Amino acid sequence: MRLKTIHGWKDLPEEDRGAAVALGNFDGVHRGHQQVIAQAAKAALAGKTSLGVVTFDPHPRRLFRPTEPAFKLMTHNQQARALEALGVDRLYLLPFDFEMASFGDREFVEKVLVGGLGVKHVAVGFDISFGRGRTGSADLMKAYGAEYGFSVSVAEPVANREGEKFSSTGVRDALRDGHPEGAARILGRPFAIEGVVRRGQQLGRQLGFPTANVEVEDYVVPKLGVYATRTRLPDGREVPGVANLGNNPTTGEVETRLETWLFDFDEDLYGQVIETDLIAFLRPELKFDSIELLVQQVLRDEVAARAIVAPGF
What we know:
This protein is of the alpha/beta class.
């Protein structure tokens, strides 16, 4: 991977300082985020410097609202791949701890952006807020840029034809409503769950449709139910399939997980990391009165999913 991930902002070597950076949380790296990064990329090219993205780990919501339900749209690995595809050279993961949370807007700019990262340019979204109490704004960042000697660009909102602004909240709402296609329009790609394949009850294998089981963990939980899917394997192959996202009410309640039946595939994936796109929502999760009824429905789900992700097969 060409992108370099840098944990922290203190005592950085000179080769990791002086970038043109995009500042924000960038959860999802959706089309609005891409506009901010594009402005930083333009400045990096003009200034003949590296292109960086500055974000926080963990997300500030984890510190201030630790009991909130999971909400993440991607893992750090997924974020890094998405940013690398946009030409980003440096990903600065700033630890969002009580020290960081204590910085006022000026302290954050002076200590972190200027003193720590030595930024040459900062690109932000129109609705940026930063510093203790979220007192910093896009206009204030411009003023600090003029004072401390870095240029600033502000990306205006990006919207669809109906005027709906692209946002991480919009992605989460679409997923919770069972509209992965709507989430994909905002993201610019399908929403995907990545994780290690765990050994389950192996009931699917006994019934003729073995599944690769991945825990949902810190992801936002989309509407529970059955989805047409496309899964990327560690070797880069993509395999169409059908997946149940849920708690297994028929065969025994479990933590929410994605159980994906990969079509025409019979290889051992246990312990490997896979990434599954949710392409289309087929039906809600159901509890069946018998295993026979479950099998009949799964076979109907297969037909519906194949028509979407593997037509002609």
